[in-house]
Amino acid sequence: MIKILLLKKAKCQKFSTKIKIMLSRNGKMVNKNFKQIEHNINGAEKVEKLIENNDSILSDSCAIVNDNIEEFKNCDLQISNHS
C-alpha cells in the first residue's frame, strides 16, 4: 500500500479543489491531471521542495508519499491508504 498524505496549510485560503499528488514507490510523481512530472524524488523533504518550486503544483493542497510520515507544522493532515 502507498501512503498518501494530504496536507492542507492552515495559512492558506479555502480551497475549491484538493490537488492529489500521488507518488509511486519508484519516486515518479503525477499531478492532479495524472500527467507524469519527470522528477526523481526521494523522501518527503524533496517532494515538499519540489512543490514549493514548481508553478504547476499549487501549494494550497498537496500529497506527500513517504514510508515514514512525519507531521508538518501549521498543517491539517488527512491520511488515506491506496493499494
Ordered list of secondary-structure elements with their pairings:
Blueprint: E1 2-9, E2 22-23, E3 29-30, E4 36-37, H1 43-53, E5 61-64, E6 75-82
Antiparallel strand pairs: 1-5, 1-6, 2-3, 3-4
Molecular structure report:
This protein is α+β, with helices and mostly antiparallel strands and about 80 residues long. The protein has one domain. About 15% of the residues lie in helices and about 30% in strands. It is built from 1 helix and 6 strands, in the order ββββαββ. The strands form 2 sheets. A 3-stranded antiparallel sheet has the order 5-1-6. It is globular. The N terminus and C terminus are likely disordered.
Which band does the percent of strand residues land in? 25-35%
Task: List low-pLDDT spans.
Answer: 1-45, 54-83
Supply the helix-strand structural class: alpha+beta
Rg for CA atoms: 12 Å
Number of domains: 1
What general outline do the C-alpha atoms trace?
Answer: globular
Count all strands and give the number: 6
Distance between the termini: 4 Å
Helix content: 10-25%
The helix tally amounts to 1
Query: Describe the biggest sheet?
Result: 3 strands, antiparallel
Sequence of strands across the biggest β-sheet: 5-1-6
Mean pLDDT: 39
Report the order of strands and helices.
Answer: EEEEHEE
